[in-house]
Amino acid sequence: MSEWFSILDLDPDDTETVRRTADLLVEGFKNDWPDAWPTVDAALEEVRESLVEDRISRTAVAEDGAVLGWIGGIPSYGGKVWELHPLVVRPDLQRRGVGRALVVDLEERVRELGALTLWLGTDDETGMTSLSGVDLYPNVLEHLANIRNLRGHPYEFYQKLGYSIIGAMPDANGRGKPDIYMAKRCS
User: Fold this and answer.
1) Residue 98 and residue 104: Cα distance in Å, rounded?
2) pTM strictly above 0.85
3) Phi, psi for 29 (deg, rounded to 5)
4) E strand or H helix at 147, and its extent?
5) How confident is the model at residue 35, as a pLDDT?
6) 3-state DSSP call for residue 58?
7) By three-state DSSP, how is residue 158 classified?
8) What is the pLDDT of residues 114-143, one digit of tens each?
9) Cα separation of 135 and 143, whole Å?
10) d(CA 83, CA 11)
């Protein structure tokens, strides 16, 4: 926790905070992942899906109630593996510890639930890494071994938190637009 914000469960009955979380999702992804949640309605659907009983949905909230960031967790493999999905931080507050705090908080929550691994996918749709715009076949692993961050792609943020690149799905978002898979042991 931080002195200037708290991390709390997103309350499904708090419609105002749910709406602000959806607004943040649109704002946070519009520049580099414009097709992820292009409208508030699409973002609201994503936020509401995160509020079901077996999932984790946490927000970083300022003292005045402003939503600073949001993170979700989705169980799989009988709860031994969880997916970090999604993570968003208000653009003007990035690099101030909000994202790191949300990830650490999620790691603690899934560890308490018996998870062994936390994984995520981080797309490159807009030429942010050396994997974008390239035919990764047939040497996907060679391309991954030589990945370069060209324009602030978040994979390096996750690496600083101990996540490893474990693979990629070439053309996940169209030709030359891969999804980069990362994971970390939680136990």
Assistant:
1) 10
2) yes
3) -110, -5
4) none
5) 87
6) strand
7) helix
8) 999 999 999 999 999 999 999 999 999 999
9) 9
10) 20
